[in-house]
Fold:
Amino acid sequence: MADFLQALIELAFAEDLAGGQDITSNATIPESQNSVAEFVNRAPGVIAGLDVAVRVLEYVGINDISVLVAEGQEVPAGTVLLVARGNTRKLLLAERTALNFLTHLSGIATLTSHWVAAVAHTKCQIRDTRKTTPGWRLLEKAAVRAGGGTNHRLSLSDAALVKDNHIVATGGVLQAFEKVRAAQPGVSVEVEVDNLDQLREVLVGKPDLILLDNMSPEMCAEAVAIVGGQVKLEASGGIILTNAAAYAQSGVDYLAIGALTHSAKALDIGLDLKMGS
Structure:
C-alpha cells in the first residue's frame, strides 16, 4: 500500500477509535457474528475509489471482497458496487471510512464526466488544478481521470506555472518566464496572462503553455488567433458548466477547472448489511 494511503487510512481509524472502541457495535453485536455488506449507490454516477475501499476493508481484517464494477464505470442508481463478507463488527468499523473515500472520489469522477460531456464535440480537454484536499491529491486526481478528465501538475516540482504574483514580484511577464526557463531549461513552463498584451509579450519567448486567466470566450478566441498554434492555450476563471462549451469552442486546448476537486458533491453511496456469511 502506498505510504500516503496507509497514512490516510490510519488517520481515519485513529479519529473513529479515539475513545478506544466502537461502543455501539460492541454492545449490540456478538463478537463472532458474520454478515454480508453490499455497497450500493443511491444515485447514478461514475464510480471511483474502489481500490481504496478495498484497502480500508483489508485494513480491518476483511479479505472476502468482490468488486462488481470497474473504476470509472458509469452506473445507474441501485447498483451493487462491492460486496464484502466477514465479521460484522469489522464490517461496521470499516463502513464510514470506506464510504468517505468512495462517495467523495465518485463525486469528483461524476462531476468531471459532466464537464467532459459538455466539451466532447470539441478538441478541448478538461483539466484539474492543485485545489485539492491536503493529503488526498493523488486520489482526487485519479478520480478526475476516472471521470474522463486530465491532470495538471501533481506538485510544484513537476512543472513551472508563472502566475500573476510571480509576474508582479519579477517586474514583467516575459522577465518572469525567462528566469524560469533559464533556471529550469528541461522543465515545461506555463505562463498565466491577464490580457492580450501580456499574451503577445510572452509569446515571443515560446512558453510551453499559456494560461488565459478570466478572459471571455470571445477573448479566448482572439488569443487562439494571435497564437496561431505556436503554443497550447488553457482557459481558467469564470468558467462554469453552462458556458464550458462556449470556451471550448473558442479553440483553446484545455479548460482548467478547480471545481472538479474543491466543489464536487459527494455521490450518495450506502452500505446495506445482510445477515449470514
The chain has eleven helices and twelve strands. The longest strand covers residues 34-41. The two ends are 27 Å apart (CA to CA). The first helix runs from residue 3 to 16.
